[in-house]
Amino acid sequence: MTKNTTPPWARVMRPTLSGRRIRARLVRLAAALIAGLAVFVTLSSIGAMTATTSVVVASRDIARGSVIRRRDVTMVEVPASAATETALTAIDDVVGSVAQIDIGEHQPMYPSLTRDAPVIPPGRSALELKVSNDVSDLLPGDVISLVSAVGCAPAETAEHLGEVGGEEKEGLCTLTNQALVMGRPATSDSGVVTIEVAVEPDAALRVMNSADVGAVVAVQQ
Domain segments of the chain: what residues? Predict the structure, then answer.
C-alpha cells in the first residue's frame, strides 16, 4: 500500500478552481484579522490617551504654614500621566497636615507639599511667647532654640527669675534647644510677634521668667 506523502498545503497551491477559491478565502480571512487587530490597537491607544485618575487638588489658595482643612481641598478627575502618578488620591491623606509652601488653587497635592501637624509631646507644656526677631519662616513642627538676650540669671537675680538658669554662651542664655513650634507666628497690629511652642516644664519656667525680664529670640535650627 502506497503511503500518501503529499503535504497538506499542496491542495491550496494547485492551479485549479478549488485551489483559487481556497486561497481567496484565506486572503479574506487574513484581511479581516489584520483589520480587527488595527481596530483593537487604535481603541487601546485612544483609551490610553483618555484614561483619567482621581487626585486631590487645592480648592483655594493655601498659604505656607496653614493647617489644611477639608474645605481647602477637593477631588477631581485629571488625565492620567507621569505628572499625577505620585499625587495624593485620598482627602484624608492631606486634611490636618501643614502646607510647607504656598499652594495655588487647583494645584494637585503631593506628599512633599505638606507635613504632619505637630502634637504636644507627653510631658511638655504649650505656651505663647513674645519674641523679638522675625520668625515668619517658621512652620508648625519646626524645632527651635529659645535664647534670652539678657543672658542667664546672675546670682543676685536668681530669685527673681525663679532660681532657674540656662546655658550661657557669649553673653546670651540658651533657655532650651527643643522648643516645638505648634502654630504659625502671629503679628499684632502694634507689631508684637508671638509664637506658640511646646517645651519641657523646666524650660517653660525659664522662658516665662526670661520673657518678663528681657527679649527672647527664636533661633531656627
Answer: 11-38, 52-115, 125-220
Could you read off the pLDDT of 116-160 as tens digits, one per residue?
A: 999 999 999 899 999 999 898 999 999 999 998 777 654 334 344
Specify the length of the chain in residues: 221
> Could you tell me the three cell numbers for 18?
478549488
The pair phi, psi for residue 52, each rounded to 5°, is -125, 165
Q: State the distance between the two ends of the chain, measured CA to CA, in whole angstroms.
A: 100
pTM above 0.70, yes or no: no
Strand partners, 215: none
Q: What is the CATH number of domain 52-115?
A: 3.90.1210.10
Helices (H) and strands (E) in the chain, counts: 3, 11
> Which of 51, 105, 113 minimizes the C-alpha distance to 78?
51
The 10 Å CB-count burial string (b at 16+, else e) for 152-162 is bbeeeeeeebe
Cα distance between residue 42 and residue 193, in whole Å:
63
Digit-coded pLDDT (tens) for 163-182? 445 554 455 788 999 999 99
* CA 79 to each of CA 50, 76, 203: distance values in angstroms, whole numbers, following the listed order: 7, 10, 52
What is the per-residue pLDDT across 70-89, written as a single tens digit (0 to 9) for each? 999 999 998 888 888 899 99
Cα separation, 52 vs 58, in Å, equals 18
